[in-house]
Amino acid sequence: MKFAKFLTTIVAGSMTIAASTASADMLDVHMSIPKDLTFLADSAKLMDKSLRDMSGGTSGLNLFGSGELVPAGEILENVSSGAIPAGWSFLGQWGGKVPVAQIGATPFGAGPEALAAWLHVGGGLEIVQRGFDDLNVKILGCHITAPEPGGWFNKEINSIEDFSGLKMRMAGVGARVLNEFGASAQYLPASEIYLALERGRIDATEFSLPIIDKDFGFNQIAKFQYYPGWHQPGSVDVLMINMDVWNDMNAQEQAMYEAACQVSLAWTLQYAPAAQTPQIEVFEEGGTIVKSFPDEVLAELRAATERVLNAEAEKDTLYGEAYHSMKAFVASSGRWTELQTLPAE
After folding, report:
1. Which residues is 149 bridged to in the sheet?
2. pLDDT score of 158 more than 50
3. Which pLDDT score is estimated for 7?
4. Cβ atoms within 10 A of the Cβ of 35, count?
5. Domain ranges across the chain
6. What is the dihedral of CA 53, 57, 59, 61, to 10 degrees?
7. 151-230+286-340: same fold as 2-147+233-274?
């Protein structure tokens, strides 16, 4: 309740500011996903609506879907150079160019609420921003995705050895962890996954939440859907604005963008959990077998994750700062969470 009042206060204040000052022009935002993609694109649309409502229609986001004008993999460099003013993407997508961006989704790491809190209360966003300063890019964390399924598979996973030889679509740190066990895990763009799975180029895939996966038809090919999403317990999508564009906004306009960003982030936390179960049940009615990874498999994956992440933290100082900061922030609420946990029925 207090958080809702806090958001209301911010938005109301921004509306007052916007009414008394000239607002920024519409901002062209190039997305790494289709602009009609369920949930993932909806938060960007909500931010656009919030900006228009607060400014009386003089500020907002002109959204361009993946590949409409700029290839998804080239958004960051184009925002950096000023060729385009802004982009919207999963933060972890840029981990190869900006190592600290890998914190956008951490295997066995912070869940959605903890990740949002660390970014906006625990200093996480400030650490991440330092990784983008030299690229002349401002980062706003405006979307948190709930834990994703562990993936779609065409065979059962009964032991860690079942990953050996497995060809799987997976990105980021999770892929490196699976490859430790003999898998061949690599990134594929969303548009290529279905065909790769259908033609046997890959044996398994992960992508996103059930309400999003349904649009790609993975359940038509893969027999098993596994949980939990150990590789991505929470992830953040960001609005990236060219720093010169951001600095050209006055303080009131910047505050309006930050407030609208928070409205979208809050919505993602509220909407996602209840929406997944009905879709999982639809999958099951269609023949999908929903399973959980064995505890022994998760223990092996956790141990390998620790090795991979600690090695990355030693290799890149800024990523190490972010990783240890996030772990400490999550741990700081550990006793509180334990004391407040209700017994199961």
Report:
1. none
2. yes
3. 53
4. 18
5. 2-147+233-274, 151-230+286-340
6. 80
7. yes
Q: In sequence order, what are the beta bridge partners of 334?
A: none
Q: Which strands, in side-by-side order, build the sheet including 167-169?
A: 184-186, 167-169, 204-205, 151-153, 224-227, 289-292
Q: Which residues pair with 148 in a beta bridge?
A: none
Length of the chain: 345
Residue type, 112: P
The two three-digit tokens of residue 237, written as one number:
């999508």
Residue-wise pLDDT for 291-336, tens only, equals 999 999 999 999 999 999 999 999 999 999 999 999 999 999 888 8
Contact of 185 with 178, CB cutoff 8 Å: yes
Least confident range of 25-29, 190-194, 236-240: 190-194
Confidence of residue 191 (pLDDT cuts 50, 70, 90): confident
Rounded to whole angstroms, how far apart are CA atoms 190 and 36?
14
Whole-angstrom distance, CA of residue 330 vs CA of residue 177: 22
In this structure, CATH architecture of domain 151-230+286-340: 3-Layer(aba) Sandwich (3.40)
Q: Any idea which fold 2-147+233-274 has?
A: D-Maltodextrin-Binding Protein; domain 2 (3.40.190)
At position 220, the amino acid (one-letter code) is: Q
Checking 186-195 for CB contacts under 8 A at 24+ apart, the result is 189/72, 189/73, 190/33, 190/34, 190/66, 190/216, 193/169, 193/218, 194/218, 194/221
